[in-house]
Specification:
- Its main location: endoplasmic reticulum.
- Keywords: Endoplasmic reticulum, Membrane, Mitochondrion.
- It is found in: Endoplasmic reticulum; Membrane; Mitochondrion.
- By secondary structure, the protein is an alpha+beta fold.
- The protein has one domain (11-85).
- Helix content is 27%, strand content 17%.
- The protein is built from 3 helices and 4 strands.
- It is globular, with a radius of gyration of 16 Å.
């Protein structure tokens, strides 16, 4: 059994936003890698379809267009942003 480690918040996540240079560069690097070396690899991507409660209102955190990498299969999942991308526990290995 592996020791449990605290999952730390990554400060770089705060810099992720639609059409940010960092996100666009990462996506272009992914597409290049896929085309050159991974074209036989199956890619499955998911997006949340439910709105996320933020304080007192509901909002969409990631647009469907932004979530779709345009490679492989793409599915909408009936979850909000927290449910689809946040860990259930802040302790690594603490989820069944």
């Amino acid at each position: 059994m592996e020791p449990k480690q605290k999952v730390e918040k990554n400060a770089k996540v705060d810099k992720l936003f639609a059409d940010s240079p960092r996100v666009l560069s990462l996506h272009q690097r992914f597409l290049k890698l896929f085309e050159e070396d991974l074209s036989e690899t199956q890619v499955l991507s998911f997006t949340e379809t439910d709105l996320t409660l933020m304080s007192v209102f509901f909002m969409r955190i990631v647009s469907v267009a932004s979530a779709d990498p345009n490679v492989g299969d793409f599915y909408g999942v009936s979850l909000d942003h927290r449910e689809i991308c946040k860990p259930r526990s802040r302790v690594q290995g603490d989820v069944p």
